[in-house]
Amino acid sequence: MSREAEMRDLREAAERQGIEVFGEGNLNARLLLVGEAPGKVEVERGRPFQGPAGRVLDALLDRLAIPRDDLYVTNVVKTRPFVEAHPNRVNRAPRAGEIQAFTWILRREIAIVQPRVIVCLGAVAASTLIHKNFAMKDEHGRWYPGPQGSSILATYHPSYLLRLRGSNYEAARDECVADLSRAWVMAQSTSRQSVAG
Asked: CA-based angle 68:30:159, to the nearest 5?
């Protein structure tokens, strides 16, 4: 079965589970990006990383001349987590049960795409794919063995950068750029490289 057919079948199964936003991109991508969950704009457009955090991500990729069309982009959680009691439906962090409910879809996306490198954007993705209670400040940019023989690292989520100002923003942005650059270089290498844990 082709990757396209496998992904189509997975999407249909995921839609029966009630997802709002499925992953998208190059099914032969060497680099796969995993975020946390869709926000309001992503749900409206039915695509990952389309709102303010998506614009930050696009700017980071542009800065490194990484074509988004060469990537596969997805989220751990496939529906928008929001504060139900809030009149504006403000985003919130996904709950453990929401993460658990959608992890099978994420793992299947990874198995179909078979990327050389995975970048976890934020602690939710890192805690799901690398190890529980991932400490972003101390552990970002480190290589770990990933699923399907991939190499995996984590960096700051673009929405985190949106909350920073001045030198704090510049420092985190530069670290994020460095992490993404390392991932892109590793993804473009001619062979899979094993990574120490």
From this structure: 45
CATH number of 3-188: 3.40.470.10
How far is Cα of residue 89 from the mean position of the Cα atoms in its chain?
23
Closest CA to 102 of 21, 158, 174, 183: 21
Indicate if the pLDDT at residue 110 is higher than 50: yes
* DSSP state string for 88-145: T--B-PPPHHHHHHHHHHHHHHHHHH--SEEEEESHHHHHHHT-TT--HHHHTT--EE
Helix (H, G, I), strand (E, B) or coil at 159: helix
* pLDDT one-digit tens code per residue, 45-104: 999 999 999 999 999 999 999 999 999 999 999 887 655 666 666 665 777 888 898 999
> Residue 98 class from Cβ within 10 Å (0-12 exposed, 13-18 middle, 19+ buried)?
middle
Which tens digits make up the pLDDT trace of 165-179? 999 999 999 999 999
Other Cβ atoms less than 10 A from the Cβ of 162: the count is 13
Neighbours of 38 (CB within 10 A): 29
CB-CB contact of 16 with 68 (8 Å):
no
Residues 34, 23: Cα–Cα separation, whole Å:
9
